[in-house]
Sequence to fold (297 residues):
Amino acid sequence: MFFFLLVSFFYFNTYYLFRRLFLPGKLFYYLVTILCCIVFISVAHVILSSIIDKYVPSEFHHPDLFHRLFFPVFPSLFVFAISAAIKISNEWFKAEKEKKEMENEKLNSELAFLKSQVNPHFLFNILNNICSLARKKSDETENAIIQLSRIMRYMLYDSKDEKVSLEKEVEYLQNYIDLQRLRISDSVNITFTIEGKIEGKMVEPMLLIPFVENAFKHGVSYLEDSNIDIQLMIDNNELHFRVENNMIKKNDDLIQQESGIGLKNVLRRLDLLYPGTHKIDIEENLKKYIVNLDISL
Fold:
C-alpha cells in the first residue's frame, strides 16, 4: 500500500503539480503542496500500519509511532526528486526542440528573403534587350526568348528546392551568359570552362550567379577590351569556383549599391548554408576583381 502511495505521488507531481504550480510566482505554493503531500503520505502510512497491526502477530508489528511517521519522508523526498528531475529534463528538451525549430524557421525565412533578392534587375535588362532585338527583327530574338524562359523556369520553380543538381545550376549560368552576350560587343572576351564530373552533385540554387552578375556589371566596357573568365571545377566532393574580370570604373551609384547588396546576400547565404565548409577569397585592385570560392558539397 505504501508503494501505491509513492507511485501516486510520483504521477501527481509529474503530470499535475509541476504543470500547474512550477511556474514563476507560484513556486512557494508548489513547495507547500509537496510538503503537504509528504505529510499526507506519512499520516496515511501510520494509519495503514495501525490497521495492519491488528491482523498480524505482535512480532511483525511496525515500529513505534515516531518511526512510522518519519519512515515515509525519505522515500517520498526521493520520489519527488526523481519525478521533478524527469519533468525538468523533459521540459528542457522540449524547449530546446522548440528553440531549434524556431531558429530553423528563422533561417529558412532569411534564406527565402535573400534568395528573393537575387537579380530582379537582370530581368528588366534582358527584356529591354529582347525588345531591342525584336525592333531590329533579329534572328536572335527567338533564341533569346527561349533562354529567358529557361531562366525564369529555374528561378520560379527549381530554385524553390533546398538543393538542385549542379547540372541545372551550370545550365542556368550558361543561359545567363548567353543572354548577356546579346547585349555586349565582341570586344568583351567571355570564357566559361567546366572541369570535373558535375553529374550527381547537389548545390544550393542560385548560389553562384551573384558573382557572375557582378563580373558583368563591373567588367564590361564598350571603350576598351574586357575579359571575363569563369571557371568551375569539381574535385571529388569539392567545388572550386573562380570568377575574374577587369575592374571598369563606373559612376552609376545604383549599380554600385545593387552590387554591394548582392554580394552581401550571397556571403550571408554561404554562412547559413555552408557553415565551416566553405572558403571564399575576394581580391580587388584597380585592374582586376577575382573571386575564389571553395565549397564542400
